[in-house]
Amino acid sequence: MFKKALSSPYIHNPPFSTRGMMFRVILALLPAAAAYAWLFGWGVVVNMLLATGVALLCEAIMLALRGRPLQPAITDGSAILTALLLAFALPPLAPWWLTTIGVAFAIVVAKHLYGGLGFNPFNPAIIGYVVLLVSFPRELTLWLLPAQLAEHTLDPAATLGYVFGATLPSGLTIDALTAATPLDAMKTQLGLGHTTSEIMANHPVFGLVGGKGWIWIDLLLLAGGVWLIYRRVINWHIPVATLGSLFAISSLFFVLDPQHSPSPLFHLFSGAAILGAFFIATDPVTAATSNLGRLWYGAGIGVLIYVIRSWGGFPDGVAFAVLLMNMAAPTIDHYTKPRVYGHDGSGDA
Amino acid sequence: MRLWSFHGGIEVPGHKEISTTRPVEPAPLPKRLILPLSQHLGAPAEPLVAEGEEVLKGQMIASPAGFVSAPLHASSSGKVVAIGEHPVPHPSGLSAPCITIETDGEERWVEREQRDFRQLEPAEIRETVRQAGIVGLGGAGFPAFIKLNPGRTIKTLILNGAECEPYITSDDMLMRERPEQILRGLLIIRRAVQARRCIIAVEDNKPEAERSLRQALGSMKEDADDIEIVTIPARYPAGGEKQLIRVVTGQEVPSGGLPVQVGVVCHNVSTAVAVYRAVELGEPLISRYVTITGGAVAEPRNLEVLIGTPVEELLQLCGTDPGAVQEVIMGGPMMGISLASLGVPLVKTGNCLLAVGRGEIEHPEVMPCIRCGNCAEACPMSLLPQQMYWHARAKDFDRLREYDLFDCIECGCCAYVCPSNIPLVHYYRFAKSEIRARQEQKRKADIARERHELREQRLAREKAERAARHARKRPGPSDESKKAAIQAALERARAGKQGAAQDDV
Ligand code: SF4
Ligand code: SF4
To answer: What is the ipTM of this complex?
Structure first.
């Protein structure tokens, strides 16, 4: 189709519009989101809806404050995507204020104070998550037991009661519902001097490769991610480089010291590795832009995930790894500038 | 033959079949021909005729002004009725000086000299081409004779029959219908540039054109040995000169340089036909094949059109309902220009008229750049369009040059694939013209300053000489000291000048 244009070209046919891209990414997230809710209960649904509502509200307020038209920004899907990604990283029973603070910070500070979509150097969802992680570390590690292991589950009403009123049905304490995440448990137990095989065998949260139940979420995320690559919404470079380098470096340590290093598969299928590789690191606004740059960018994330998980202060390293590589992206872009036609390879200006 | 590939490019639906179903016919003679004095790159031609003067078909009515310029010829016989401003096809929708001829319908020709090119020296060929007003018919209209004078050994002569832009089929039809003339033109150009090897490059979506060229080549008795017809993969902009040279020879034209620097000369197939007609038939460039197509055109087709025919008449000839037209583009949808008025004439470089129908036009919203990199992936020059866009918005012209803005060929691939629908090329054009304007300003300022300094120096010298004469009349200082006095005065003047120069910095 032709378009109204100031000058040529008069035709335009990208594989997707920016809005179309956002909504395809959201679509690719939904099966995993459903699995997440199925495993961990209604809290996940409440989190996602609440986060989306807060995100759209903040987006509208910020657009108004900045004197920008509501359209097309409010319907571009980017705020909803940020909300969903953040909700994925929150514990299934997060109090309403936790979700609200995280999302509001993501949209107001990390996105709009930097100039809105396209101008933010850091991924807003990650910034929102990191702010929560630093400010409320205890709340963020209160993970529910997956449904298969839990003795008690909360119905929708009870879930709302906890999220908005911090009350639980009588006789239940939060400790009875929650457990450490697999990565958390692994880290603590390794710190206590246990070997990986002991930990995996003795601790109930572990399944065959990683955390029990988590594997389903990760497999659905993987499927969604592969679909995005197949549909050319994202490029393969970042996910492959991220997971590839994480796999490579964890294999190395696993081979050297299998008793104290979790297996490479454990690393891939625990925590936010898959989510991060396909859905967060691929955020084009904050990533490196050339394919070569994307490989370096992804490789950096994979290595940093391992380093932070193994030697850092937090059980998972995905958020910080992405954030650090967000900072490195402009530099990577600078050093991976393609050779322009008709210029020799010596990199003249 | 080995082919190379170029970075990026896009696959665009061709829409070419709609205008290739009818054989090409000459368009009827219009009542008025409007001939802009500038249909080429370089200085506008200077009129040789006056209002009221009778002219013959093919008569030169304006002569080139300087080296990079081209003459203009009457496309038909008649009377010059006006010399003055008339709307022309130009992006800005401006008017420009034109010669308007009222045709008399008699088509009386000037005397035409028919020659065999083998009897001609390269220099004679070049002069004939120059006198015939031939410009590059596939592109920007660079005077063709200049590219016939390479001044270096030419390894490869490429005839560009790629015609990669959607909708346009004028070269395609020419290759189908006049392959002998194309080959003849090729031989003439080869003689002029003394090329060793000749290649005619055709995109693989034009099998009919290729077949007819091959047939014509097969029935050529002599000289056919070192002519090769190659099909190249259809991918926009494979017909861009730089891309085509890369595809065919694997070499790249140096940035800011010319194809001759890598031993290549590239001409369009329709230019070759014009060269043949000029040299062997003695006809200047007064007509060309034009594709008239688009959603608002009932009978899309190609016509052989006299240069200067009003666009409006051509559209009508092909059953275009004026009420249904939303926009008319001269050239293709990727690089053409949108016409501000339909009264403009068809010019030498006008290979296509694309009449876009109402409702065919979308208004996609412009969204922020999300740095997706689609544009960089599509750029056939391996530029970073998104970076250039940021810096163009910020008017950071130094950074733009760092990102090689002037290597951009304005092909439009980046904007075509941008999911945020950003009019990227528009920003680049703006930035380029802004930078050029600044350079021009600086150049003018430099000239003015230089003049000023020369004047100062002259005044100082005169003053010193006067002083010396004065001193000579009186007894006193020796010759030596006179010289020293002059020297000192000159020095003072020079020092003053340097001070001024420093002030400017
Ligand atoms: S294609 Fe458009 S949105 Fe994507 S990086 Fe280029 S300019 Fe930005
Ligand atoms: S218009 Fe310029 S920047 Fe855009 S794709 Fe073409 S050459 Fe590259």
So the answer is: 0.87
